[in-house]
Amino acid sequence: xxxxxxxxxxxxxxxxxxxxxxxxxxxxxxxxxxxxxxxxxxxxxxxxxxxxxxxxxxxxxxxxxxxxxxxxxxxxxxxxxxxxxxxxxxxxxxxxxxxxxxxxxxxxxxxxxxxxxxxxxxxxxxxxxxxxxxxxxxxxxxxxxxxxxxxxxxxxxxxxxxxxxxxxxxxxxxxxxxxxxxxxxxxxxxxxxxxxxxxxxxxxxxxx
Length: 208
Fold this sequence. Notes:
Layout: H1 2-26, H2 37-44, H3 48-60, H4 79-104, H5 136-151, H6 153-172, H7 178-202
Helix pairs in contact: 1-7, 2-6, 3-4, 4-5, 4-7, 5-6, 5-7
């Protein structure tokens, strides 16, 4: 219950600050037409096929001791289970974000309306280009990152930094409100948790 209260409080705070933060970011006069390499690299973390490729790399890698990096209270996973669970967590988190978009139909922010909320089921005009709540790029990146964090703290921290970078560049691009990114992180935590539980059931190495 306390976790739900903290999450809800965080969302409420982000909601109250959404418009102001968007205007502040817009005032930075960030050149959004320039395709910087580091921006593209962070955005790529929100691309599911990249995590599929990483999963294939994990599958083909020499496994060694497959359970050495598992969290202390968890059971070890086979290399194969880790290989499919990482891209699956990314995919499921992205799907949850897309479902969220279909339910809430909230437009992306727009400078024209001062960063105000526009919902498609109320007003189909005045919003940004497309539906933005929640950010699917951010959800994909954090879905894979949370799964890796559950498996190995060190690798997971690095993945979470990359995922945070993905969310940050989406904000700098003016494509999302802060609540879009916040909601995506929550959906990714849930999605990765579901995949992690499945992986622990299906991917625990047999003794001997």
